[in-house]
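Please check both lines for our workbook:

___
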Amino acid sequence: MKKHISPRLFFSVIGRGIKQALLWVAKLFGYKEGTTFGKIVWRVFALSASLVMFYIAVIFTCFIVEEVGYKIDDMKRNKSTYCHRYGNQYVSPYVIYHDGPEGGYLYNTVNGKRTLTGINWVCKSHDGDSLEFFSSNRKRGYFNRFTGELVIPAQYDKAWVFSEDVACVYKDGMLTFIDHRGNAAIDRNFPYTERIDSYCFHDGLCAVMGDNERIGLINKQGEWVVEPEYYYLYHEKSGFWKTEDLDGEEGLINAQGREILAVGYYDISIDTHNELISAMTPDYYDMIFDFDGNVVNACNYVGVVNLKYESKELDNDGCFKQAKANLMAYYTSGSNYGLIDLDGNLITEPIYNDITAISADRYLCEGPLGTVILDDKGKKVCKN
């Protein structure tokens, strides 16, 4: 029968072996037991060994304490009552959204608990609606931003913020408008297009695409207020809807759905302070309209330039004197030039890149189609 070796016996034998080995090495340097030198050497060795063991014990203890601390911190961070210090943003005065590498969640500061976990990101409504939507595992759902509680589960492929108490969602290949309970708010579906970036209601109207792949405006009953006949249609901060066709020509619809400017202009801008609309025609005229679409100024040019040419008279230095031509040049906001008389009557359209007087009644006009010479009536004299 094999004799059982206890840990005490094992370490005792190992310790004696180490001691004998050390004594053999020490004797090589003149160590003898019982002498004063031997006692000093042994005490120094014992003290050094004790310090080394103490140092190892301290390191081991610190390592254990640190590991235990990490485990405790992990347990705290994973608790539903813990809120991280960094990567937080308030979605309301009472709810925090934490976005971190370990995953996003909502935290209610009133009850001190996480209300929704596994969130990738959140999106806030622009009109202060109580519901916001979130993304989780590539699906969209809605939560109450004042409590952080889940209201509509993440089930939609795409979603937009609530606007005027309804929200647009995309599921099974079609767009649907829902209410705060997730029920259908409009009894019809619409095809999806990326040409509309925000399926939101503004003053009771929302841009959607019809079956003809053109865009119009519907009301909250799903009825067409503006028939789908535009390639692009998007909402302006001024309250107007800007329309656009494939060739880039623009038009304008007011907040009630009435067409103010038909498609056919460029660079439409809206001055809400003075209630004026500026637009450039294909002939480069800057036109001004009121908010009802009435023409205020048919040619709103930026300024005029006196045109001068070299006369046959000489000055005191022997140079030809500069003389003023019969007409002036006016220019638009697009840096296009035309001819205008001294009474302010337009002689030509602003279709030239540059105009130079070559005599009192002759003007060299350079444009995209080439260079021509015009007279005081704007008639072509000859080609250059």
